[in-house]
Amino acid sequence: MFETGAYIVCGQHGVCRVESIGPIRLSEASAGRDYYTLLPLYSRGGVIYVPADSDKIIMRYVISRQEAEEIIGEIDGMDMIRIDNERQREETLKKALKTCDTRQWVRVIKTINVRKKKRLAQGKKVTAGDERCLHAAQENLFGELAVSLGIDKSEVESYIESRRGGRE
């Protein structure tokens, strides 16, 4: 169980702060059940209520600063997701996003950025599906790294590049 004040990653909502834990007064809520009241850090939309005993929504603590630094150090060695079939690739990317796994988010970003460069070099546009997946992966990754590293979310990309020595 998470504590009040903890920063967690909650499903597709990204980084949230646990505001409270306990029963809530909503008609949709199950009586006698405890809920996390979560405040998303980087998205508008108010408060999220998640059953504390839910096994359907992935929730985990935000990674530590040390873990964040380790992941940044591993970026160059991480494999891309290599699937040629458009539909299969998009489904695989979406599944990777839903894992709430920081390394999977990095793989999604690497995959789409390489694909984006190739398409632009061929005079083609980036697909809408790729743009959506890239945006979601960056929002999730940069939000979590910002909290872990104690920096503003807008500084995360340049921080990563400085740690990697400017490599793409």
Descriptive keywords:
15% strand, CarD-like/TRCF_RID, 5 helices, Methane Monooxygenase Hydroxylase, Chain G, domain 1, CarD-like_C, single chain, alpha+beta, CarD family transcriptional regulator, five-stranded antiparallel β-sheet, CarD-like/TRCF_RID_sf, 2 domains, globular, 168 residues
E-strand count: 5
Q: How would you classify the helix and strand content by structural class?
A: alpha+beta
Average pLDDT, to the nearest integer?
A: 91
Q: State the end-to-end distance.
A: 39 Å
- Low-confidence parts, pLDDT < 50 over ≥5 residues? none
Provide the CATH topology of the largest domain: Methane Monooxygenase Hydroxylase, Chain G, domain 1
CATH class of the largest domain: Mainly Alpha
Shape: globular
The strands making up the biggest β-sheet line up spatially as: 4-3-2-1-5
Give helix % range: 40-55%
CATH superfamily of the largest domain: CarD-like, C-terminal domain
| String of helices and strands | EEEEEHHHHH
The profile of the biggest β sheet is: 5 strands, antiparallel
Q: What share of the residues does DSSP label as strand, in percent?
A: 5-15%
CATH architecture of the largest domain: Up-down Bundle
How many structural domains can be distinguished in the coordinates?
2
Rg over CA atoms, rounded to whole Å, is 18 Å
SS element count, helices: 5
